[in-house]
């Protein structure tokens, strides 16, 4: 019986090396975009023509005296009655029946 002595061949695990490189690349890419990339001005994306008209309306000064003294405001009437306050339930909900 012959004894064969050979050195083991060192096979590099290409697949696991590729997976490690891809994971590190993904983490580096995510870290860059999460922490280091400059943030675009959010105002550029959120301002719409509707918002511009709202900003114009919000700048209008309203004098409450002219509103409350107007004839149209004084002619307004309430068509509904105020709800009646009642006691619902027991005075002590933890008391025995």
Compose a concise summary of this entry:
Keywords: Membrane, Transmembrane, Transmembrane helix. This protein has a domain at 14-74. The chain is mainly alpha-helical and 97 residues long.
Describe this structure in words.
By secondary structure, the protein is an all-alpha fold. Helix content is 48%, strand content 0%. The radius of gyration is 38 Å and the shape is elongated. Keywords: Membrane, Transmembrane, Transmembrane helix.
Question: SSE layout and pairings?
Answer:
Blueprint lengths: L13 H23 L5 H5 L2 H10 L5 H5 L2 H4 L23
What descriptive keywords fit this protein?
single chain, 97 residues, mainly alpha, 48% helix, transmembrane, membrane, transmembrane helix
Calculate the mean pLDDT score and round it: 84
Tally the helices. 5
Give the SSE order as H and E letters. Answer: HHHHH
**Helical residue percent band:** 40-55%
Cα end-to-end separation: 98 Å
**Oligomeric assembly:** single chain
């Amino acid at each position: 019986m012959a004894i064969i002595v050979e050195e083991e061949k060192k096979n590099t695990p290409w697949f696991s090396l590729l997976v490690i490189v891809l994971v590190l690349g993904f983490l580096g890419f995510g870290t860059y975009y999460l922490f280091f990339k400059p943030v675009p001005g959010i105002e550029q994306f959120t301002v719409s023509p509707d918002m511009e008209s709202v900003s114009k309306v919000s700048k209008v000064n309203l004098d409450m005296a002219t509103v409350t003294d107007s004839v149209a405001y004084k002619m307004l009437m309430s068509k509904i009655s105020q709800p009646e306050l009642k006691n619902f339930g027991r005075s002590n909900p933890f008391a025995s029946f």
